[in-house]
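job 3f2a | input accepted
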Amino acid sequence: MAQYALINVAHRHDGLVDGSWIQSKTGSREYALEAARATEKANSNKIDVAVVANDYWMYGGPNYNHYKGLVEII
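job 3f2a | predicted structure (74 res):
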């Protein structure tokens, strides 16, 4: 199973995103993308959520730092 992370986007640039971790997802890419859209909807579309590979957090739990240059999965 693939590991993904949902990111609250602060800035997008050249296929990269800057932002903060929301939550991790295990499953297919489509599942992670659906979770991102559902998270946006649950927040009245006031936040922009990106999906990135979960290489940055792996199994360490929540990390609320601001990250720059994460590769977005489309």
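job 3f2a | The first strand starts at residue 2 and ends at 13.
job 3f2a | closed
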